[in-house]
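ok trying again, last paste got cut off:
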Amino acid sequence: MARFGGVGLSAHWLRADEAVLWARIRADGRYPEAAPDGRYLMDKFPARTVRYQELLLAELAALGREPLDAGDGRSVEGLADIVAGAVTGAG
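nice, full thing came through this time. structure:
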């Protein structure tokens, strides 16, 4: 994470609760139908994802920035609207 400046530049981090991350990974990976090796990977990946998010959120806080909420139930279009609003200053 680094500070940067300039006209027309912005960076935004989407965040979601740990339970949402786990549920999305398992749903998109079709956990119930996955082979044991696939389920093993899906069990390990969220832990890494959560840890990475924790580190990035700490960096954002140190920079005085807030993440954008990508919480449960938001559609892709809804997330796109949130990001567009943040980028244009309308959100």
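cool. DSSP finds three helices and two strands in the chain. The chain has a mean pLDDT of 84.
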